[in-house]
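Reply to dn_fold:

You asked what the input looked like. This is it:
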Amino acid sequence: MLQNDSFTRGSLKTPKAAAIAGIVFSILLVAIFWMFRISVPADPLEPGAWLVTNAGTVALAVNLVPFAGIAFLWFIGAMRNRLGQMEDQFFSTVFFGSALLFLATLFAAAAIIGAVILAFANDPRGMAYSATFPFARAAAYNIVNVYSIKMAGVFMFSTSMVSLHTGLTPRWIAILGFVLASILLLGSYYISWSILVMPVWVLLISTCILIDAYRR
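and this is what came back:
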């Protein structure tokens, strides 16, 4: 009897854990990209004037990235736990793999930007005239705007497919996920704020899961 009670309590806590982790991840990632956007010019070849005026804001955003990553991993783990035996091996592999690759590329870009800030603080004059800065800036830009955003699209597509077949989320959220994932995969180059589609969509999923958990 005690074992059954423990199992029931665990089953009820899992959706709430996924929802709360997803909400935390969404809020943090939106805040991170907002700070980057208002502090660093979109042009990857700009000379680096933001290192003088906005380095503190960018450093704060870089330090928030690991916490967003932890929340995202918690969200993924709780979602997979909720799926249980309904989990399809093919789509779950794509779902889990794209999530990890998204985090890896996001962490890599944040590490490069953090290294640029530290190098500039140590030797501002030398960094300003070094060829290392344009390379590092362009590398971080390409990692986020090419690789991270594409992995976010694959994650949304696979999550929508899993949700459509298992009823993990309402059907309309899964269909919306397909549409938004297509925008990320095909049109992200033309839409500068498209990276925010993914955390907003995760926030939508998390809110629905949380509402459903409290109803039950």
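Helices lie at 2-39, 50-53, 55-83, 89-122, 124-128, 132-166, 171-187, 197-215.
Hope that clears it up.
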